[in-house]
């Protein structure tokens, strides 16, 4: 792997990290109080949808 490819991958990794941080901080995904897996998936899906719409 050369230096240019490493820099490109590092930028991609950083953007994913920023996305996850914003999702956790702004959408409170980790505070979901649903018990069933289906309800948790729906909550996370709607949180992501709202985050994308508002950003």
Describe this structure in words.
This protein has helices at 3-27, 37-54. With 55 residues, the protein is mostly helical. The chain has a domain at 24-55. The mean pLDDT is 88.
Main sheet record:
none
Q: Beta-strand percentage? A: under 5%
Query: Rg from C-alpha positions?
Result: 15 Å
Percent helix among the residues?
over 70%
Q: How widely separated are the two ends? A: 34 Å
Low-confidence stretches: none
Total helical segments:
2
Principal-axes geometry comes out as elongated
| Average pLDDT figure | 88
The SSE string, one letter per element, is HH
Structural class: mainly alpha
Topology readout:
Layout: H1 3-27, H2 37-54
What is the structure about, briefly put?
With 55 residues, the chain is mainly alpha-helical.
Features:
mainly alpha, single chain
């Amino acid at each position: 792997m050369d230096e240019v490819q490493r820099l490109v991958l590092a930028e991609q990794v950083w953007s994913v990290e920023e996305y996850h941080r914003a999702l956790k901080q702004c959408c409170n995904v980790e505070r979901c109080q649903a018990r069933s897996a289906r309800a948790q998936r729906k909550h996370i899906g709607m949180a992501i949808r709202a985050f994308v719409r508002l950003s």
